[in-house]
Amino acid sequence: MAKPRDGTATSRSVLNRASEPRPSRSRRAEPLLAEISWEVCNQLGGIYTVLRSKVPSMVERWGSRYCLVGPYNHASASVEFEPAPLVGPFGQAVKRLREQGVYAHYGRWLVTGRPHVVLLEYLDVFKHLHEVKYRYWTDHGVSMPPDDELLNNVIGFGEACRQFLTALAHSESPRRQMIAHCHEWMGASAVPLLRQEHWPGTIVFTTHATVLGRFLAMNNSQFYSHLSFFQAEEEADRYQVGPQHRIERAAAHGAHVFTTVSDVTAEECRHLLGRKVDLLLPNGLNIQRFAALHEFQNLHQTFKEKIHQFTMGHFFSSYHFNLNKTLYFYTSGRYEYRNKGMDLTIEALARLNHMMQHAGIDRTVVAFIITRRPTRSMNVGVLQSSAMLDEFRTVVEAIKDQIGERLFPAAAAGKTPDLNTLVDDYWSLRLKRTIHAWKRDALPSIVTHDLVDDTKDQVLNQLRGCHLWNQPHDPVKVVYHPDFIAPTNPLFGMEYEQFVRGCHLGVFPSYYEPWGYTPLESIALGIPAVTSDLAGFGSYLVQLLPDHEDRGLYVLRRRYESFNNSAQALADRMFTIVQMNRRERVALRNNVESFSVHFDWHNLVKRYHEAHQLALERVG
Q: Is residue 118 situated within a structural domain?
């Protein structure tokens, strides 16, 4: 589709027309809600999951009066976006925006609920970018470097959002109220400009994690106890995120309603952004998407068998152990070694290894560490083992078919044949050659890929330092997989959700986690999980759901606890799971599955409705 580029209006032209007098009406139409985020139709992190999973509940309440706004990304839009005619208030605003020289795409997001969506080609406003940056400096005291690509993109997107919302106000104000709900500093860069220009709608801002807090937590082991003493402006400049921090702070103070996802992050906002939050908006999931119609126990068994296949390929060429007595633990998420608690998880696994050896527990734990790291390729030895396992499967299937074809007629004739005569020499010799080629003296690798810089990788170095080498006598084995699990992955060949269903425990003892979707996804799939009291999700459990431990959710104490004490507590929890018999583990999964419904968006979306109602009341 060709883009109309004949608009010559400056960045303020739409606003000027929006300020023209409009006829008043005695009765207002119902409000409109535009939810703005950098991750609309643009999967980058957890906010994408928040928005996507929440859609059905939002559409149920708002219907066609609800629209999401994000940046246009051709690669993702080509599979997640469906164009629609420019009708209705949002479609007409897009039409007006195009007339101003900023192209926007209007249609449906191809997710459950199929909401209206506007995707902005923010590069169209780059010709005015210097003006926007100047306004940030003169009106809000935020200076920006000229050559920061991320900042330029975010400011361009914010200006495109401002123009879209102004175009929406031109046709809809004052006959109806409008709400702009912005997520994160990247989706809220328009807030200071909108307030400066007295946009007639009301604004909600949700920060899911402060820009500065993530850096401070990553680099300060006393982050929470020192939180009230940090000089935010100085620290932001120190970590070279000064402009981002100041935009976020301006958005927090400019919003009519300021919210965050947990009390953990609320404390962070109060000290680092200088404003108390008005409401907490905990994250949920569309549990129906994960529902297995009470088949989750069968699904666990099915996908556990697939993980068994990986385990045989990875370990059995060196030595073997009893798969019927093997448990699978996993941790996953963005590579933030300390913030995500990877350091604590590895230390606890090392202690568990010693505890199981000392107690003589006749079981094996295979612990997966799944994240994304720069790699050169898959480990050659790992690939060879996987290929050899496929060769075994081919040979065994051929022998099985040949024996079946020859055994049945012999038995039907009343003969008891010599089983050695039922297999051709070719297949018998091929099996023997495969067995000889399969065996190797090397230990199973603790990492599945060749890392770009494995000498400096913190996870790999800690595994080495803790002597988690996958030796035969170690009951705890580790597999560090620095890539996502997907059906195209040659080692697993399954979806991430299927992999989770096949495990026995998810381990997420975060040091810094504003909410924490990974343990929530774990319980939605019927798998027990560990979180921490420094994760928003864990804090929520402690305060509002006191029986969480009986339901398969363990909240590890990390606030005001030493690393040593927390590591031992986590190892003890793992040891408890290891000692359970099969019946006890099945009962625990039943409890987890029934508990997950509490976190469905149909329950938690009420907090969003409260925030939007409060925003409407504050504007009047």
A: yes
Cis? peptide before 243, omega within 30° of 0: no
**How many beta carbons lie within 10 A of that of residue 308, not counting itself?**
16
CA distance 349 to 326: 15
Residues in Cβ contact with 413 at an 8 Å cutoff, skipping those fewer than 6 apart:
none
Q: What 3-state class would DSSP assign to 354?
A: helix
What is the per-residue pLDDT across 25-81, written as a single tens digit (0 to 9) for each?
Answer: 446 799 999 999 999 999 888 899 999 999 999 999 999 999 999 999 999 999 999
- Residue 282 sits in the same domain as residue 342: no
Query: Judging by DSSP bridges, how do beta strands 476-481 and 364-370 pair with one another?
Result: parallel
The stretch 424-451 carries a mean pLDDT of: 84
pTM for the full predicted model:
0.85
If you write DSSP's letter for every residue of 530-599 in order, what string do you get?
Answer: EEETTBHHHHHHHHH-TTGGGGTEEEE--TT--HHHHHHHHHHHHHHHHH--HHHHHHHHHHHHHHGGGG
Amino acid of residue 413: A
End-to-end CA distance of the chain: 41
Asked whether residue 212 falls in the same domain as residue 358, the answer is: no
The predicted-structure confidence for 478-502, as pLDDT tens digits, reads as follows: 999 999 898 888 889 899 999 999 9
CB under 8 A, 24+ apart: contacts of 16-20: 17/170, 18/166, 18/167, 18/169, 18/170, 18/173, 18/200
Residue type, 601: W
Last residue of a domain, one of 438, 457, 472: 438
Q: How many CB atoms lie within 10 A of CB 544?
A: 10
Q: What is the CATH number of the domain that holds 236?
A: 3.40.50.2000
pLDDT of 239 higher than 60? yes
| Token pair of 521 as six digits | 């996804």
Euclidean distance between CA atoms 207 and 399, whole angstroms = 61
Backbone angles phi, psi at 524, to 5 degrees: -65, -25
Establish if 318 belongs to a structural domain: no
Domain that holds residue 50: 31-286+604-619
For 28, phi and psi rounded to 5 degrees?
-80, 145
Judge whether 192 and 247 are in contact, CB under 8 Å. Answer: yes
Residue 68: strand pairing partners: 35, 117
Q: Which of 20, 67, 392, 280 is nearest to 169 (CA)?
A: 20
Query: Which is nearest to 552 in space by CA: 600, 506, 589, 579?
Result: 589
* Cα–Cα dist 41/43, whole Å: 6
Whether 67 contacts 115, CB under 8 Å: yes
pLDDT single digits (tens) 306-348: 999 999 989 998 999 999 999 999 999 999 999 999 999 999 9
372 and 388 co-located in one domain: no
What does the block give as tokens for 276?
């108390």
Q: Which letter, b or e, does each residue of 3-30 get, where b requires 16 or more Cβ atoms within 10 Å of its Cβ? A: eeeebeeebebbbeebeeeeeeeeeeee
> Given this model, what pLDDT does residue 27 score?
66
Q: Are 159 and 122 in contact (CB under 8 A)?
A: yes
Q: Which two tokens stand for residue 297?
A: 């126990």
Is the separation of the CB atoms in 278 and 258 below 8 Å? Answer: yes
Placement of tokens 């003589």 in the chain:
360
88 and 234 together in one domain: yes
Q: For the chain, give the mean pLDDT.
A: 90
Tell me the residue ranges of DSSP E strands in 111-175. 116-120
Radius of gyration, CA atoms only, the chain: 28
